[in-house]
């Protein structure tokens, strides 16, 4: 099974299992959620399922518009029944690294407003410890004016490097939807207690959000190489 096929299998099963008519649904960002929106649109068309969706990025919003799904937002519907999103890595405690796509702030906000966060991914995201397979680092969204003092302070406190994420098709750093920069924390100690670390990071003036989603997800669906779907709860 190709990676894309694995993503599709996980996404389809998660949407089949967790979406009911009348639901308010948070829609994550990245390449795997594309298949979840595809399946959701099929279910709306064939089963007359009625849902409204809260996007977590421009990308997610475009996806929903392209699939003629009804949009809503947290002003109108602050209590979501379920949020379906991808992840860069999932460990054995269902803790996540997210933010590879730079949408971590809105993703965490929307996920925090949902009764359930369901993760969909291919098997390459299925690790026992964070950092085992995913090597691009833990994203940390920071206020632009503070990125350098934060980088300096964190490199003094923790093992690893905190690299300013540079844009590819635009000169300069990546600027998030919320006008912030991202530091990617690479080569970190994989045995750290992530709940504590996440709290320490969040308290630093200028840190807006981290890509550590600790004890937020209820289930993770992994598309496997043999075409099966592994569900971690
Ligand atoms: O950036 C994000 O948090 C995305 O959800 C990412 O973690 C998953 O993206 P993918 O589905 O393209 O791997």
Summarize the structure.
Helices cover 30% and strands 25% of the residues.
Description:
The chain contains 6 helices and 14 strands. It has helices at 3-18, 33-47, 58-66, 104-112, 147-157, 194-202; strands at residues 24-27, 52-55, 70-71, 80-85, 89-90, 96-97, 114-122, 138-142, 161-164, 181-186, 207-210, 212-213, 219-223, 229-232. It is globular and about 55 Å long. It starts with a helix and ends with a strand. By secondary structure, it is an alpha/beta fold. It is 30% helix and 25% strand. The protein binds D-4-phosphoerythronic acid. D-4-phosphoerythronic acid (DER) binds at residues 28-32, 85-88, 98-101, 103-104, 107.
Shape: globular
Q: Numbering strands along the chain, what is their spatial order in the largest sheet?
A: 3-2-1-4-7-13-14
Overall average pLDDT: 98
Runs with pLDDT <50, length 5+? none
Count every helix, treating DSSP H or I runs of 4 or more residues as helices: 6
Protein name: Ribose-5-phosphate isomerase
InterPro entries: NagB/RpiA_transferase-like, Ribose5P_isomerase_typA_subgr, Ribose5P_isomerase_type_A
EC number: 5.3.1.6
Catalytic activity: aldehydo-D-ribose 5-phosphate = D-ribulose 5-phosphate
List the helices and strands and how they pair.
Layout: H1 3-18, E1 24-27, H2 33-47, E2 52-55, H3 58-66, E3 70-71, E4 80-85, E5 89-90, E6 96-97, H4 104-112, E7 114-122, E8 138-142, H5 147-157, E9 161-164, E10 181-186, H6 194-202, E11 207-210, E12 212-213, E13 219-223, E14 229-232
Helix pairs in contact: 1-2
The protein binds D-4-phosphoerythronic acid.
């Amino acid at each position: 099974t190709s990676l894309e096929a694995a993503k599709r299998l996980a996404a389809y099963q998660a949407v089949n299992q967790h979406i009911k008519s009348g639901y308010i649904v948070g829609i994550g960002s990245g390449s795997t959620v594309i298949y979840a929106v595809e399946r959701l649109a099929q279910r709306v068309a064939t089963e007359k399922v009625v849902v409204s969706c809260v996007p977590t990025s421009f990308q997610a919003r475009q996806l929903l518009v392209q699939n003629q799904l009804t949009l809503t937002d947290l002003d109108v519907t602050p209590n979501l029944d379920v949020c379906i999103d991808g992840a860069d890595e999932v460990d054995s405690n269902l803790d996540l690294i997210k933010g590879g796509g730079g949408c971590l702030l809105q993703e965490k906000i929307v996920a925090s407003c949902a009764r359930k966060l369901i993760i969909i991914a291919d098997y390459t995201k299925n690790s026992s410890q964070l950092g085992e397979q995913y090597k691009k680092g833990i994203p940390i969204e920071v206020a632009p004016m503070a990125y350098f003092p934060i980088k300096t302070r964190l490199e003094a406190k923790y093992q690893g490097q905190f690299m300013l994420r540079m844009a590819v098709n635009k000169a300069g750093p990546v600027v998030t939807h919320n006008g912030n920069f991202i530091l990617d924390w690479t080569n970190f100690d994989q045995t750290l207690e992530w709940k504590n670390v996440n709290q320490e990071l969040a308290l630093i003036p200028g840190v807006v959000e981290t890509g550590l989603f600790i004890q937020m997800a209820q289930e993770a669906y992994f598309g496997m190489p043999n075409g099966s779907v592994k569900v971690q709860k």
